[in-house]
Amino acid sequence: MGIVNFAPKILDPIPGGKYVVNAIDYVVNWARANSIWPLTYGTSCCAIEMMSSSMARYDIARFGSEVFRASPRQADLFILAGTITRRMAPAIQMLWEQIPGPKYAIAMGACTISGGPFIYDNYAVVRGAQNIIPIDVFVPGCPPRPEALFHGLLTLRDKILHETCRDPWHEGEPKDVSTMDRYREAANTWAALERMKDEEMAEARAKFKEENPDYKSSFKPVRVKKEEFPEIPRAAKAPVGMKQVEIFKKLQSKFDTVTYHTHSEDPLEEVVANLPADMPLEVMVGREQYLPVVEFLKNDPDFKMDYLIDVTAIDYDDHFDLVTQLRSIELGHKIFLCVQIKKDFSIDESERPTSLLGKIESISHLYPAAEFKEREVYDMFGIDFIGHPDLRRIFLDKDFVGFPLRKDFTHPEMIRRPV
Amino acid sequence: MSSLPPGFRIERDTNTEEFFINMGPQHPSTHGALRLALRMDGETIVELVPHFGYIHRGMEKQAESMSYLQYIALSDRQDYLTAIQNNLGVVIALEKGMGIGVPEKAEYIRVMLSELGRIASHMVFFACFGGDLGGQTCLLYGFKEREMVHDILEEVTGSRLTTNFFRPGGSRYDVPDTFIPRVKAFLDHMEDTMKDYERFLSKNIVVLERSRGIGVLSKEDAIAYGCSGPVLRASGVNFDVRRNNPYSIYDQFDFEVPVTYNGDCYDRYTVRIAEIHESMKILRQCVEEFPKDGPWRAKEKPVRLPVGRYYSEIETAKGLYATYVVAATTGDKPYRIHTRGPSFPHIAALNKMVQGYKISDLVTILATLDPVIPEIDR
Amino acid sequence: MFVPSVTNPIGDFVRELVPQVAAFLPASLQSDTLNSVVAFLINALICVVAVCLVNIGSAPILIYMERKVCAHVQCRLGPMRLGWHGTIQTVADVLKMLFKEVYAPSGADKLMFYLAPLIVLIGPFIVCALIPFGRNLVVADVSMGIPLIIAVNGFGVLGILLGGWSSNNKYSLLGALRSGAQMISYEISFAMILLFVVMISGSTNLMSITMGQEGTIFDWWVFKIPVLGLIAFVLFFISSTAEMNRAPFDIAEAEQELTGGYHTEYNGTPFAMFYLAEYIALVTNSALATTCFLGGFLPPCIGVAFIDNYLNMVPGVIWFFAKVYFMIWCYMMVRWTFVRPRVDQLMDFEWKFLLPVNLLLLVAGAAYIALVG
């Protein structure tokens, strides 16, 4: 930077000076273009391909770029490998500002170009890295192969070689394309093209029809005949631990609000028989008895449900289903507890999407694993857990508005899928 | 101590001055966009608070407006080190809903590709473990063998990383004729190289010093925090979904579930290395018994699930990967899909494991947990 | 009268030349004092240029060598595109770093921030001036060579501490403190081993230490005293690796833990200086190892007159650099093979193992000298 940028001002007026400036340009650009040190940064799948590209098979060192710097102050190139989420975006901008100029950015992969697979119906993903920092080279692919990254690197090299200190490197501006719906745009363009073609061809078609009134296309679509294979019946695997019916009977004798979850009116034995293999019965528990039931299941010597698989929830119109999946490592049986939490409709309708609608006791003192799972449910559904030691948002920013996994959730930057 | 940042809880009276360090989201050894807030007393960690969500991509919300088949492609992006196993987890849940069986050859293909994926994932673990300890060379050696797995996966599925291969009732394509010879060649090569690699790290005095007795996770804690996979088995719990609750045709193979009892970093390392050998054992059996002909997929059916809730669990390289599908109406779109990734509980247990250890040990412990952050954040 | 002490053929030549040139000047300017001062200044200039050439000139070669050695250890090719097999890759790197933007982070102590990389460079440069490169090629042939080296080596840790502290970054500070503790500890065993060399050679002058090894390869200090010399050499290798902050003892800049250690916040030219200092220290430490243990510029004679004649025909400088580069290669192979110990293990290793062994070595050396002679 700096000093070479004054060279044209001083040397250009002097006769023959422009050749010196050209020579300076050549040397400086040659150095910059051939020594591109990337920043160690990666968020998801593309990062692995970026790592692969520096490994033995592909060896990014051949281009002099194997010096991955962990500190942004020593890097030249910012390879944006992996999806950029709204939460990560400020961090990326800060990293970009910390890289000393001249600096370059490669957007690697579909996610950083447009949002990729996450473009529609998504509230969390930044649609394109060019919204937050200026990008020099885009490398398409999901994820791009290492060869594609090398092509991007060599394209960047070409770009640097065409710089000059008469118009020195300067930081570009990010382009705001966050709400641009490329699919629809492309579809409209395509439709307009088709229409234009139709209009152009209309006359010719009419003429053709006039000349050959009896013409009939001989084209027949070729269908590959699909072979039909017989399905091979497999023996059902024997369940381990207690039988599902047994578990349920035992629970019901102890707790009165326990029922089973079904979509029909069938009796218990039939429901169990119809369950897909390996799927435990879903036991419905009353909201008040949830904590005692979990406590009982954990401590009772017959059950010994010491392992929490997951806590999750499902949003329905008037209630949440809180599903607690437990298993016993020692005995091998599983149980899914399902609690219906009625939504609190006393809250004003305009405030409902942003306020906590349900309440239930936390089980994090029984299962330490539940602490983070319950935070996730709180974050995604807005269910309050009484007695939780550290109830904060876990995946989203603390000032995020709304609870994404509710069915009525809307987000200003969510593009609906055009179907 | 009321002025602590959110998440920190431990009350302690000290005369030393504590300070806070922020690790990530851009840090070379947090394996992606994970942020760890550390409360330090000198070089010793007092408490750790993980901050997630830097790669939260809203997959579960997005899945609600996708068809089941499209979600298979999305599941690749969760645990991208073994994308093929995520496919399997989703597909098994869908099959339970559709009520269709899988022909034998398809099951063999599934098992073989899953085990190849497991080897690939454990090779990345090997690489990152060595790399995070400071042995840069190890990083490259691990990835070298992984490329061979990628070659096979690419030949079969058409993609190196995000495979999107399995479908309810089988897979997208039949395997090519070169598949079996290639796997055979890979196994022969791997037998030799594994010896070298184990010599490189397993008996290395510095590695032993840095990983033995570090980050001990007791059996009770491992179960209570919901750890799974090699982390749980290193703590002395003999639990493997492949053995305890067999899916696909894992009940037909002869393999052992490696278990160690110390629960420290070195045990987690040895369990994974032993698992590579077990995977190769399964692959050897597959190669011998692979059905030459026969259908490679069940009769094609539209993927429509009846009303109900479906659940599947499989053992990926990281641990217990469970998919929970809720179909509220009979159709091709889910009402809700929830994924239980194995890495999430591991990071939840991290605070328990690092207290009192040095910042260098944190790097070792994190490497042996082998987390994949997009799988946590989804 | 002031007499400069540079004694080598070039110095003598300049000293003879200056009066001859001065004879052409007016008589009022002719005096012995002036002549000797001018001769001294010219000599000093030549020395500075020579030291800079050896140091700065070897750094790009070393960086290229490091990248190639590392690549071949890791089954890769390394830089291949610039020049034949990427030979001028480092030139591009250095040029690029010179043209990068330079700024200090907010809250940094600007003066110290920019001063630190310069301080780090001082130590290796002074040490380089003391090393005899050939029979008559030594910049400063001081009689207190070894104590001076021990004293000057402390400069490095000062620069690193200042750099880490002035960056206003917790990672830098942690890295700097680690490095301070490490370098000060290992300095002790480093000095002890040099003391051992002084003891067995009976001189603190580097030239006479080298000349004491004249003869065959078995007269080198590493082989001359059975077993003890070899142990001392290995210990020197370990402690100098730690002294240089090189992997596997690079806990100060442990990339996986502290992102960049003390130079996390440095960019552009100041960072290039840190980078340079690391490699110059590699040269000087290898040169020191060569001088103290591997016979310096003496050829590796084996006692067979026919072969020794040919070996003696090769200039000493070439032998010296061949040995230095062999040592550098060893350092590099170690760097890319071993994993890094933890910070407290490193200190344990120094205080509980290396230092006691050093003391034992000194006692054993003394006993050997007393008994055998």
Structure description:
The complex is a heterotrimer of chains A (419), B (378) and C (373). With 419 residues, chain A is an alpha/beta fold. Chain A has helices at 7-11, 17-34, 45-53, 89-98, 110-114, 146-161, 182-211, 244-254, 268-274, 290-299, 370-381, and strands at residues 77-81, 104-108, 137-139, 259-260, 282-285, 307-315, 319-327, 334-342, 358-361, 383-386. Helix content of chain A is 32%, strand content 13%. In chain A, α11 (370-381) links the parallel β9 and β10 (383-386). The relative contact order of chain A is 0.08. With 378 residues, chain B is an alpha+beta fold. Chain B has a single domain (58-340, 359-365), classed as Cytochrome-c3 Hydrogenase, chain B (Orthogonal Bundle), CATH 1.10.645. Chain B has a 3-stranded antiparallel β-sheet with strand order 1-2-3. Chain B has a 3-stranded antiparallel β-sheet with strand order 6-7-8. In chain B, α6 runs antiparallel to α11. The radius of gyration of chain B is 21 Å and the shape is globular. Chain C has one domain (100-371). Chain C has helices at 9-22, 32-73, 89-98, 110-130, 145-166, 170-201, 206-211, 221-224, 228-243, 255-258, 268-293, 305-313, 316-335, 343-372. In chain C, α2 crosses α3, α2 (32-73) crosses α13 (316-335) and α6 (170-201) packs parallel to α14. Chains A and B meet through α3, β6 and α11 of A and α1, α5, α8, β6 and β7 of B.
